[in-house]
Amino acid sequence: MADSTPEQVTLTIDSQTVTVPAGTNLIEAARTVGIEIPHFCYHPRLTIAGNCRMCLVDIEKMPKNQIACSTRAAAGMIVRTRSDKAMKARQGVMEFLLINHPLDCPICDQAGECVLQEFSYHYGTGGSRFEGQKVHHDKNVDLGPHIVFDGERCIKCTRCIRFCEEVTHTHELGLFSRGDHTIIGTFPGRQLDNAYSGCTADICPVGALTVKEFRFKQRVWFLRNTPSICAGCARGCNVNLGINEDRIWRITPRDNDAVNQSWICDEGRLSYQTYQQGERLGRALGSAAAGGATREILAGSGYEQAAATLGEIARKHGGATVAGVTSGHASVEEQAALKELIERAGGSRIALPIHERGDDDALLIRKDKTVNAVGARLVGGANCTAEELLTAIKTGKVRALVVLREDFLGELGAQAMAARGALDFLMTLDWRVTPTVKASDVALPLCAYGEMDGSVINFQGRIQLLRPGLTAYEESDPAWKPLLEIASRLGGAAVPKNFREAFRWAASRIPELSHLDTPALGKYGVSLESPAPGRA
Amino acid sequence: MTSQEYRPLLLKNIHRPDSTSLSAYRESGGYKALERAVKEMTPEQVLEEVKASGLRGRGGAGFPTGMKWGFLPKGPGEKYLVLNADESEPGTFKDRLLMERDPHLVLEGFLIGCYAVGCSRGYIYIRGEFVEGWRILLKAVEEARAANLAGKNILGSGFDCEIVIYRGAGAYICGEETALLESLEGKRGMPRLKPPFPAQVGLYGKPTSVNNVETIANVPLIVEMGSTWYAGIGRPKNTGPKLYCVSGHVRKPGVYEFPLGIPLKELIFEHAGGLLRETRPLKAVIPGGSSVPILPAEKCDVLMDFDSLAAAGTMLGSAGVIVLDDSVCMVDALLNLARFYAHESCGQCTPCREGCGWYVQILERLEKGEGRTSDLDLLLDLSDRIQGNTICPLGDAVAMPVRSYVTVFRDEFQYHVDHKKCLAEPAPAPI
Amino acid sequence: MIPSKATQLQIDAAIQEYGQARSALLAALHLIQQERGYIAVEDQAWVATRLDLPPAEVAGVVSFYTMFRTKPPGRHHIQVCRTLTCQIRGCRELVKHLEKKLGIRDGGMTDDGRYSLITVECLGSCGTAPMMQVNDDYHENLTVERLDALLESMK
After folding, report:
1. Which helix or strand (DSSP H or E) is residue A268 part of?
2. Whole-angstrom Cα distance, residue B286 to residue B305?
3. How far apart, in whole angstroms, are the C-alpha atoms of residue B218 and residue B419?
4. Do B350 and A99 touch (CB under 8 A)?
5. What stretches of A439-525 show up as alpha helix (H) in DSSP?
6. Maximal CA-CA distance, chain C
7. Which class does domain B3-231 fall in?
């Protein structure tokens, strides 16, 4: 393979020797040796603005301070980030930024993750010499469907403007006026309403742009972040779930160059709201005797009832009359467990409903609104469409159906009753009470998003981990547990005791995954395209 | 040559009737230099002449023009020469005079410059408020085009050069070369980060040199008379004729042309009529436009050229000589300038954007009699925090006067603190 | 409310002259303001479409430059220079005189729309201070008498 490593240069930063590829800016160069050069307007994913002046550093042989963000490392450069000259400039910038900045910290969402606060603490002088009138702007401006803008807090770093120009190419934002009345804004009457508007709040270093849905909800220092994957579409953006008191208060993106860079779409950002609405299925539902009314039962009885009924139907009408509905919303382990159960019962027909909306966009959004459709196909057994399955049910070829994380009947609309009537046995595993759950003979409660571990494979063929940050609701489980419990009663193997065992069990059945184990997946996942570690 | 014997070169036509017309210009020998350049000289030879002449930029920075042109890449390839006619530095009004009274001198110099650097489409950026100057220039360009002095195949030489005139819309900052380029590209006039410099990445991303009107007006002279002759005017490293704008408390304000290096006091007292009012003596002079350090009366024995003024701790700048008599309160004067810079700051970078407004508030307090001694040191400290830390020189342009006035006239500022009023005795407005 | 056909044609010509549509923005705004006296929000949206620019950028440009107005001025828009030389040559007294005579303050307009008054920064005419610009024209070497005569002549 041709050697494409760029030329390396060696320089000195704060007496430390640093070697970086030629062309690296000084902020990144300093980072490689753990030196923080404070900055506001610089963002590695956006063009250089160089306007905040916070990153001014002292470079030998240069009479004036230079901004580190736009200065490229050069061989032999001697940089001092803490010389008197640099510190004086930095303190100056801090003081200047604060003279017109409102004392909003007590009511500002950004507190606790505010770069201005942090740098004021680390690099400021601890007091202000300003006595006068601050410049006033509109506060609490409804800038877009998900964004509130506070004009007084804005430090005019222009990250938001550059984001809308360079990342979403939607150009809603601009700079208005001049001098210390400069302010960001939209064209009169227009909104900041691109599909990624929430990202402007992520990159805003202060509380000028904040997300409406999170406004005043939680102080960020109460939130514990669980790294996970967004389940809103087939991209599987890397996220942090901000959790307190066993509830998700916000979702924010995690950096992953391969999947979502530093971004997430608004729908994904707010997807946690879906799981906080509607009625949860908390306990198993079943009937004491065949044909009896369903009521809450112990999970164990549900497994028994299901195993017994499936076995009976298989004996009476043949194993092929047992079918399943898998889901792109389910994890690989759950999908593999469903296949195992159907096969143990003698069946093979498994439908994968399609959930598509709109189009793939040029940035992150996928029209496939499930996070793990690839998993369902890799697991094998997604071998018929929902329409084909429906036909099979109506013609009596399918008499028992196991539905995983799908509102199969609900989606059928007018045909639901006829379909239900044609089935001898319907079992559903889901996290909420859907029409399908209500019509089921046995319904088993599942963990919702954020309550369980699970591996999912995105459209790029990258396998990533969903992680739990919430306690499982009431009696709910990841679906592989009840499915394999039932399967074991039909002759299947012992039920895995924990997620890692469940993953290893599922991976051993899928050639593309057979070399993997959960520690290898880490926080950023693994591409199934690239050669596996340990392989030739 | 004493200043008494000096005959104007740049201003030689301005008093002629119909001085804006092509025929009048030609009658006085105009466009001979252009003809010589495009027919008898190569672009490199023209460039060398300008270099050898020692011509330094007349816009404020004083950078050697030939060297600046030399930074542009040689050979074919799109390049631009842009004329900076955004004259907005307080105290300066010489470019306007040239454009309104001798537009063809400016055009001829510009065309020769375009020839020298290899530019086939030159832009003139004129401040929006100069409506008359704009109309005059438009007409002059039309005349020049019609006479084959501009446009395609100039004077049959094979050299093509279109001149495009572009109006600004009210922004001092657009006099800064990269802000000017931004404005020319149809954007807010916010200066660019340097590097890269315009000579590498300029207008539309192409190599560009931005030059001042007066600078370019010197070029026909250099080409016609030769660099040696030109360099004989003034003194080494400070060569050529200079337009001095004298305004303020003088009897005869106006533009005066002399060789670089005329003594400041001679300029004021022998040519500009001396101080306006008998009873009000000289207090201070701003020698080079509002952005330069001020000279108190006792420091005004100085020669008006780049290096002499630099040695005196100030700058020739735009040669906007503002004369202040003792009716001027220096706190009030500085407040006026601080307000100017606060109004004109583009707002891009933190120290200038916030610092200008802060200066104004402190000076307002001092002016009103609500200031403290610590305010004076604060003003000095803020100047240290702003100067050298901004994207463009506007930060320096406000910091330098603040530092200068508070230092030179510290007593007066202190008086405002102690006595809550002006030290200077006002005089009735001379209207 | 969009520019007239005549103005649109002039804007077309400007686009041709500058080669890049975006460069014609300031010229287009000048032309619109010449016709209408100011630049309305609808004009800005129209220009944005015509030059294929984001509307927010057009509005940002309009708000940046001092000469661009978004509200109608008086028939005679009086802009008195207030920077240092003009100040020490008496512009404040002139402004006071104007405010008194016209019955308006700096930034205001007479009820009959005849005069509007603002103060502006250096107009590059320090040699003839104090001075002002009314609409497009410079009026220099002002005295109270000259000012009064000028006001009279402006109908």
Report:
1. helix A266-269
2. 14
3. 51
4. no
5. 480-489, 499-508, 518-521
6. 50
7. alpha beta
Question: φ, ψ for residue A108 (rounded to 5)?
Answer: -100, 130
Q: Are residues A446 and A507 in the same domain?
A: yes
pLDDT at A388: 93
Which tens digits make up the pLDDT trace of B359-397? 999 999 999 999 999 999 999 999 999 999 999 999 999
Same domain, A267 and A308: no
B320 touches chain C (CB under 8 A): yes
pLDDT of A288 above 70: no
Q: Contact at 8 Å (CB) between C34 and C77? A: no
Q: Which two tokens stand for residue C150?
A: 């000028």
Q: List chain B residues with pLDDT less than 50.
A: 1
| Residues forming beta bridges with residue B238, ordered by sequence position | B235
What is the span of the domain harbouring residue A38? 8-97
Per the structure block, which two tokens stand in for B234? 């003034």
State which CATH number among 1.10.1740.10, 3.65.10.10, 1.20.1440.230, 1.10.1760.20 fits the domain covering B330-419: 1.20.1440.230
Inter-CA distances, A280 with A275, A286, C104, Å: 9, 16, 69
Name the pairing type of β-strands A141-144 and B282-286: unpaired
Question: What is the helix (H) or strand (E) element at residue B324, kind and residue range?
Answer: strand B320-325
Query: Is there a contact between A109 and A42 (Cβ–Cβ < 8 Å)?
Result: no
Burial of B373 (0-12, 13-18, 19+ CB in 10 A): exposed
Closest CA to A186 of A195, A173, A176: A173
Helix or strand run (H / E) with residue A164: helix A159-166
Say how far apart CA A62 and CA A69 lie, in whole Å.
16
Query: In this predicted model, what pLDDT tens digit does every residue of A311-364 receive, in sequence order?
Result: 999 999 999 999 999 999 999 999 999 999 999 999 999 999 999 999 999 999
**DSSP secondary structure, A170-222, as one string:** ---EEEES-GGG-EEEESTT----STTTHHHHHH-SSTTEEEGGGTTT--GGG
- Range C76-153 classified under CATH 3.40.30.10: yes
Task: Look at B342 and A181 and tell me if their CB atoms are within 8 Å.
Answer: no
Contacts of A155 in chain B (CB under 8 A): 350
Residue of A nearest to B379 (CA): A129
Alpha carbons B304 and B307: distance in angstroms, whole number = 9
Q: How far is C15 from chain B (nearest CA, A)?
A: 11
Q: Quick check: A411 and A353 in contact, CB under 8 A? A: yes
C-alpha distances in angstroms, A221 versus A24, A114, A162, B13?
34, 11, 29, 75
**Closest in B129, B204, B429 to C133, CB measured:** B129
One domain for residues A86 and A113: no
- Look at the domain B243-325 and name its fold: Ubiquitin-like (UB roll) (3.10.20)
Strands A238-244 and A224-229: antiparallel
User: Chain A contacts of C60, Cβ < 8 Å?
Assistant: 174-176
Which of A181, A187, A200 has the most C C-beta neighbours within 10 Å, making it the best mutation to test the interface with C? A187
Per-residue pLDDT band at A533 (split at 50, 70, 90): very low
Domain assignment present for A2 = no
CA separation for the pair B127, B108 (Å, rounded): 20
Contact (CB, 8 A) for B234 and B222: no
Rg (CA), chain C: 18
